[in-house]
């Protein structure tokens, strides 16, 4: 089942922190069953992380995050993938 997609922005001077934050979120979701009337469900999170680069427009930032997200899904889901530099695309 595919769930909704969302984007989250954060202001932080240290880009290196973003992958760790995303991984902790993924682990937290996976570690807690979601209780329903039909029983517990185990949820997973696939994330694509992109950071703002010099000269970025909202569309280029979103495109890199989306590419990383779909790379995470292709690699088996329930994982975090980091975007490639926009200068290489």
Q: Biggest β-sheet: count, sense, barrel?
A: 2 strands, antiparallel
H-E order: HEEEHE
How many discrete domains?
Answer: 1
Provide the low-confidence segments as ranges.
none
The CATH topology label is Alpha-Beta Plaits
Number of helices: 2
Give the N-to-C terminal Cα separation: 30 Å
Secondary structure layout:
Elements: H1 17-31, E1 34-36, E2 39-41, E3 47-49, H2 58-74, E4 80-82
Parallel strand pairs: 3-4
Antiparallel strand pairs: 1-2
Characterization of the model:
The protein has 89 residues and is an alpha+beta fold. The chain has one domain: Alpha-Beta Plaits (2-Layer Sandwich). It is 36% helix and 13% strand. It is built from 2 helices and 4 strands, in the order H-E-E-E-H-E. Strands 1-2 form a two-stranded antiparallel sheet. The chain has a two-stranded parallel sheet with strand order 3-4. The chain starts with 16 loop residues before the first helix and ends in a 7-residue tail after the last strand.
List keywords for this structure.
89 residues; alpha+beta; Alpha-Beta Plaits; two-stranded antiparallel ribbon; two-stranded parallel sheet; 2 helices; 13% strand; elongated
Short structural summary:
The chain has 89 residues and is α+β, with helices and mostly antiparallel strands.
